Amino acid sequence: MPCPREKRQLAEHSFICRWGVLAENSAGRRTPEPEDEIRTCFQRDVDRITHSKSFRRLKHKTQVFLQPEGDHYRTRLTHTLEVSRLARTIARALELNEDLAEAAALGHDLGHTPFGHAGERALDKIYPGGFKHYEQSLRVVDSLERDGRGLNLCQETRMGILHHTYGADDDTLEATAVRFADRIAYINHDLDDAIRAGILRPEDVPARVREKCGDRNSQRINAIMTDLIENSQNGAIAMSDDMQDVFDEFHNFMFSDVYTNPVAKGEESKVEGILGGIYEHYVLSPEELPPEYRAVADAEGVERAACDYVSGMTDSYAMDKFAEFFIPSAWTVK
Fold it and tell me: Which one of 138, 238, 295, 323 is CB 3.0 to 4.6 Å from 327, fit for a cystine?
């Protein structure tokens, strides 16, 4: 009798099109492992990511707004979950491998810094080798998770994580689906959060975007996703020319009115000082790094270890460490 994994792999032939990736055709893992009896290789990747420490830390990492007052603003974790759902929707509609798309989506931001893209820009200036969150996400799953053993993910999942921002010519369609899902998710939910924060009003959204995509978050996402799915064919994923123009206008509006808005970003100038101070502290005192990062320092240098440790911190932990290192304890009056 075939095991559940074998049944699933056989079933994939009936619902994954010729441009999708069959689990049985995966290029495999960097370190070969026996197959699981229950799950396909991509299902195992999903589980390994969702059970990782770096995934759990995403709930305390900024998406766009630093320390917002309110419970309903997105975090890096909720962003990741929204991307995962959109990626699965695209993959299912286009008859691609949903498990592969989900795995890459869940892992795409594991290497993101505290304080969102402000933290990424800060570390890119501070760390001599430069810093890109998508490269760090791959480093997390390859080298940092599980006390330095990594998650040993499939090659297709790894490349979907690495290429989620810019893509590559040899990407799987599942990786392309994740890249679209990421962009669709963040401009829509960041707009929703900006309106919630009072930075924007609904009527500030460009008229063409409102006309083409609607006034509500759900309407906008549905309009863009429907267009993308209806216009993707013959092994290519793409929006219609008209929707792509609207999407580009929407994207540009978000950068000019939210991502660089002085009200929304007024506190970001402090991020470089916070992360820079913590980074320099560990460079000068590597013995204070946790054991797994001291091992990185021995193998790859203290700067690399300090960068890895700082980039993995949550917002609150980074603030606590900064206070511990640089803010004097209050005087106690007896």
Answer: 323
